[in-house]
Amino acid sequence: SGTAAVVAGGGVALPVLARRTAVAGFSGFEWAVGVPGSVGGAVRMNAGGHGSDMATVLVDVELVDLTSGTATPAVVPVAGLGLRFRGSDLHDGHLVLTARLALAEGDRVASEATIAEIVRWRREHQPGGQNAGSVFVNPVPGEVSAGSLIDGLGLRGLRVGTAWVSEKHANFIQASEGGRAADVRAVMEQVRSRVAESTGYLLRSEIRLVGFADPSTMGQA
């Protein structure tokens, strides 16, 4: 089987793209079905899961640097993005317009079965409802997970106002309907502080904080 180039807009939802590429008979992007985010955000954070990530399938992106004073798009190959575990060299002024992916020509039935299994696994192990997915980057990928550190301190259920650490998975923060971003951040700060004090690991946020005066205090990836 060969490969195919798939171009997606930066605002396309990852689960939608995962399902549409599977229906079209392309494989390699099934992992994204459970990631709550957009293509552009996935490039910025090198989103991933289930053994793969954006760096594995990305060819290049078309982006604009809003801080450059011009609106001229530039095509940047994946090697020029500085992709790393849940991070990249892109900054807040970069706007990803499109991303070109290299996917394998696969089997629709097999891809849809893989997606169904990923969805089943996530429903069993991760919370639904209002959350932004995994909150903190694993300090030592494959060895030390943020969730295990938080869970080890008994922080499931820790609550501030409208937000709380999920009872189902300690690296998720849930919010009630109409929940406040400030409450989510407050929970993040408490968790980060207590993990640092007890274990020495200073957790970095996978979530980009927008609209706060000092988002850098979360050690964003």
Account of the 3D structure:
The protein has 221 residues and is α+β, with helices and mostly antiparallel strands. The chain contains 6 helices and 10 strands; from the N terminus they run E-H-E-H-E-E-H-E-E-E-H-H-E-E-E-H. It has helices at 14-23, 39-45, 54-57, 108-125, 146-152, 181-199; strands at residues 3-9, 26-27, 48-49, 52-53, 58-65, 74-77, 94-105, 159-160, 163-165, 173-175. The strands form 3 sheets. Strands 1, 2, 5, 6 and 7 form a 5-stranded antiparallel sheet that branches. Strands 8-9-10 form a 3-stranded antiparallel sheet, covered by helices on one side. Strands 3-4 form a two-stranded antiparallel ribbon. A hairpin with a 7-residue loop joins strand 9 (163-165) and strand 10.
Structure in a nutshell:
It is built from 6 helices and 10 strands, in the order E-H-E-H-E-E-H-E-E-E-H-H-E-E-E-H.
